[in-house]
Amino acid sequence: QQQVKQSPQSLIVQKGGISIINCAYENTAFDYFPWYQQFPGKGPALLIAIRPDVSEKKEGRFTISFNKSAKQFSLHIMDSQPGDSATYFCAASIRRGGADGLTFGKGTHLIIQP
Amino acid sequence: AAGVIQSPRHLIKEKRETATLKCYPIPRHDTVYWYQQGPGQDPQFLISFYEKMQSDKGSIPDRFSAQQFSDYHSELNMSSLELGDSALYFCASSLDRFNEQFFGPGTRLTVL
Fold first, then answer.
1. CB-CB under 8 Å, A99 with B94
2. Do B31 and A99 touch (CB under 8 A)?
3. In chain B, N or C terminus with fewer CB closer than 10 Å?
4. Which of A34, A89, A107 has its CB closest to that of B100?
5. Contact status of B93 with chain A (Cβ, < 8 Å)
6. Which residue of A has its CA nearest to B4?
7. Residue from A43, A93, A107 nearest B91 by CA
8. Tens digits of per-residue pLDDT, B67-112?
9. If DSSP states are collapsed to H, E and C, what string results for chain B?
10. Considering only alpha carbons, which residue of chain B is nearest residue A2?
11. Which residues of B touch A105 (CB under 8 A)?
12. Residues 6+ apart with CB under 8 A from A22
């Protein structure tokens, strides 16, 4: 049972467009939601993260929108560039005693066409 | 900026052999996490350590064990290797146990 459901599985966007990736969760105990970018053969790189007390967070071209009542959050990549082509993972964790493991979504393979 | 260091980067083992993966966290980071990522899969959390004590535990097989040492580096020990253990193994570190996790480049383990 996938605790964090991510969609779409793959996405093609034209250069300069907006890429939107969505995630949904069931466990209301989740209280930390990061997004990671991963290139083939490389480790995931943290892009941006949000906690449930805010509805939106923006860093450069990347924005997280968070809807606590719907238990959904999404990543928006503005002015998408070919260099953004990668796999994107949403994740979530529950704050217990600290050093809490992340639960990842299945990933979205994003292709930005020039 | 300094990043997480993992060694070796590639490792080939036979079935039933043992393997040891090492992780050196970012300087001043005291928390380490281990993840396993199969081909085309999402990373799966295995185990974490804070101040040399096991903190959280995920889907780590009983054949695997790990520890964190006084210099905060960590080692993942894998015994009785199976074909299904072939995967990328990532270590991540964080500046104390409530901060963001930063991943290393991974160790690619191939079990033949």
1. yes
2. yes
3. N
4. A34
5. no
6. A43
7. A43
8. 999 999 999 999 999 999 999 999 999 998 888 999 999 999 999 9
9. CCCCEEECCEEEECCCCCEEEEEECCCCCCEEEEEEECCCCCCEEEEEEECCEEEEECCCCCCEEEEECCCCCEEEEECCCCHHHCEEEEEEEECCCCCCCEECCCEEEEEC
10. B42
11. 42
12. A6, A7, A8, A72, A73, A74
Q: For A83, phi and psi rounded to 5 degrees? A: -65, -10
Tokens of A99: 């050093």
State chain B's mean pLDDT as an integer.
96
Q: Which has the closest alpha carbon to A76: A31, A13, A9?
A: A13
Please indicate if any CB of chain A lies within 8 Å of the CB of B89: no
**pLDDT tens track for A17-66:** 999 999 999 999 999 999 999 999 999 999 999 998 999 999 999 999 99
